[in-house]
Amino acid sequence: MAFIPHTGADVAAMLSSIGAGSIEELFDEIPATLRTRALAGIPEALNEMQIGRLMSERARADGTLLNFIGAGAYEHHIPAAVWAITTRGEFYSAYTPYQAEASQGTLQLIYEFQSMMTRLTAMDVANASMYDGASATAEASLMAVRANRRSKSARILVPQTLHPHYRRVAVNTAHNQGLRFEELPYEPAGGLTAAAALERYEGEDVTALLIQQPNFFGRLEEVDALTDWAHAHGALVIAVVNPIALALLKPPGQWGRRGADIAVGEGQPLGVPLSSGGPYLGFMTARMEHVRQMPGRIVGRTLDVAGKEGFTLTLQAREQHIRRAKATSNICTNQGLLMTAATIYLSLMGPQGLARTAAACHARTRELIGALTRVPGVRLGFAGPCFHEAVLLLDRPVAPLLKALSARGIAAGLDLAPYYPELGHALLVCATEMRTQADIEHYRASLSEVMQAARAA
Amino acid sequence: MSNVPADLKYTKSHEWVRALPDGTLEIGISDHAQHALGDLVFVEVPEAGRVLAADEACAVVESVKAASDVYAPLAGTVTLGNPQLTGEPQAVNSDPYGSGWLFRLKPAAGALAAAALLSAAEYQKFLDAEAG
User: Fold this and answer.
1) Global pTM value
2) pLDDT for position A1
3) Which ipTM value was assigned to this complex?
4) B56 touches chain A (CB under 8 A)
5) Residues A308 and A448 in one domain
6) Considering only alpha carbons, which residue of chain B is nearest residue A313?
């Protein structure tokens, strides 16, 4: 609670009207062992002026690093109009109102979001957003088990090239519901899911295959072959995609002969700033045949009794406010405000703007790879096409180098050692359209210096 | 007053059971149930070969208002889900005891004897008591 307005007299009046002598007495039926005592490490309260001063000091200490980290959250240019419009009073709520149809503007906006996401992914239907890319991946796995009624195994194949956090969230969310996640190794030369890894599942019951495109290493998976393999073996395909990359890459709805069945992803690149990890938003689209297994809210366009166009929540019969404990999911429109920003971002960029942004990201990343691999002791981890990220292999541990570069104002990438120790000294780097040639040259020169210093030490 | 054909057996969760000449059972939902649900827009029936325990949720009938589970009146193996209902869920409303059947079941050994199915008269009494 940001602000507790009760005075001592208010509290005393409330206690006396319910016949309790003190706050202690009010809660005395809670056993002492269950009560929280004074919390360790919590400082004394500060007043508003003191806290404001403290926080601005802390914010200065953060500084603004020159960012080359991607790994699931990306620094893109956000036109000023995006948040100027999003924060208008008419839009400024995370939720769909309880009487949803009274807010036609909100519903129309969700409908536009859904339409844009289906266009971007080349799928039939979209919902009104998810919490984030990781939880959308977990929900898509649960949905695949409901939708693939021929499969009894609830076995989901998960490439190790899928974002490590997404894998952990999916397992945490769904393993108690009987889903089995089995990891597929990647081939070490190209950083791609190995076709050979699928061979051991010949003749086995597989419910779904997850495919991230571009994958966590920034590489482009053989999505057509993987999709066709899955469909030939009775498995559904869940695509995990980057919405900016979709402006250049083949959309999930066109993967292989039949297309992916479900597509999910992180919507943060669409107008949502990097802010210490969130709040972000997830998206989910699917083929029409799976619409009744789709979690969350869906807005439809219809006609009212007078024949005028209107928007309404639809396909709600399996959701929590109707089915309670048996509902498909507990997702609602929690990320509505971020969905609003994403919709406005997409409408301002348009297909051409999005494609130019994606092309700029790719071009900058190629320049970055070219520059950094000229530094002695640095080489490219995986050869072959990428989008806007790449793995570099260094000749010494990454963590101390990142620390030294951070001191020089550069967020130089993600150390992959905690996630992929088998890769050795691996660094995941990213360049979006925000990075200039001067930024890249500054990074190259700084990396060269800190590596030289490390070698000399 | 809902229609309760005398030649069928019933459950308290509003399924009906018809014995077919080949020893399998045809199962659907009662006229009372379809009326309470309202116009159905989607029906999900179990696949042939699925093995069901008694009282297991095995089909879903969905109206614009709600999606409700249908339970297996007794244990057995599904021999056929009504393929017509994918395109015509409204058959459950218009002809609940005929073309609106949901699935056919080969009962497990002893399952029929073990199931406490209601006669038409008992089901009617149950409906009257629920309404009362």
Assistant:
1) 0.87
2) 40
3) 0.75
4) no
5) no
6) B64
